[in-house]
Amino acid sequence: MDGSKGGEGISRRHLLKGAVKVAVGIGAGAMAMTPSNVGAQSAEKKRTPEEGLTDIREDLQGKLSDLKGRFADIQGRFERLKSITNATLRKNVAKKSAPEFTRRIASAKDLAMAGAAQAALGEPDDKTSIKQMNEFGDLYGSLDAIEKELDILAREE
Q1: What residue spans carry the region label Disordered (predicted)?
Q2: Tens digits of per-residue pLDDT, 78-122?
Q3: DSSP state for residue 114 in the 8-state scheme
Q4: How far, CA to CA in Å, does 135 sit from each of 106, 110, 127?
């Protein structure tokens, strides 16, 4: 190790060449494993996992607040639906379609109210709440379809 050529050790030059190869290999491996936007990430502050969870929690709480607003909107819509339904049913008492119409409105109302209540009461970071939010979105869309159908039936009378 003293740098002599006597064959009793590795020369300093040989060690340096090996160290450079190892360093280049480590550097290449590290470059291959890093994301392409490392430069952009290094410019901004690195986020901790807790900050990421806080952001997710805030996002879900915002969605929950939105659902509560939609729930209040649905309650208003059902009041409107009830008045239209009552007026339409009064006109259609003698018709055969009245019982079927009443059943469809009642079942849609029950489904939408149950889904909205579950979604509004769920924990914002609970996976089941996310599922309920999606189901509630589907029910919210079906409520629009029911309202359109009621408007068409009311105009036909």
Answers
A1: 33-53
A2: 777 777 766 666 665 545 555 555 566 666 666 566 555 555 555
A3: H
A4: 18, 14, 13
Question: Do residues 14 and 68 both lie within one domain?
Answer: no
d(CA 55, CA 8): 62
The 8-class DSSP code of residue 93 comes to T
* Triad 130, 112, 122: Cα angle to 5°: 30
Q: Based on the fold, state whether residues 37 and 57 are members of the same structural domain.
A: no
Which residue type sits at 109? K
pTM, 2 dp: 0.29
Q: Which of 103, 94, 82 is nearest to 150 (CA)?
A: 82
Please give the Cα distance from 31 to 25 (Å, whole number): 10
3-state SS record for 25-80? HHHHHHHHHCCCCHHHHHHCCCCCHHHHHHHHHHHHHHHHHHHHHHHHHHHHHHHH
Which domain covers residue 67, as residue numbers?
A: 49-156
User: Which value, in Å, is the radius of gyration of the alpha carbons in the chain?
Assistant: 33
8 A C-beta contact, residue 150 and residue 85: yes
- Alpha carbons 61 and 64: distance in angstroms, whole number: 5
CB 140 within 8 A of CB 112: yes
Same-domain pairing of 56 and 67: yes
